[in-house]
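Morning F.,

Quick status update on the modeling queue. The single chain you submitted on Monday has been processed. Sequence for confirmation:
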Amino acid sequence: MDQETLMTMAGYGKFFILLFVFVIFYSYAYSIYKRQRTGERDFEKYTSLVHDDSFDSAPLEKRDN
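C-alpha cells below.
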C-alpha cells in the first residue's frame, strides 16, 4: 500500500470512530432527557452535590439493604 491509501483509510477510520462516539453520546443524553421528562429519575437533585458536598449532608436517595 502506498502512503496516500493509508492516509485515506486513516481518515475514514477517524470519521467513523467520531460518528460512533457522536451517536453514543447523543443517545445517552437523550435517554437522560427522556427519563427526566417522564419522571423516572430526577437528575436535578444531583446538582445540589456541587454546592452541598460535606460529610454531614443528608443522603439524596434511600438505600435498600
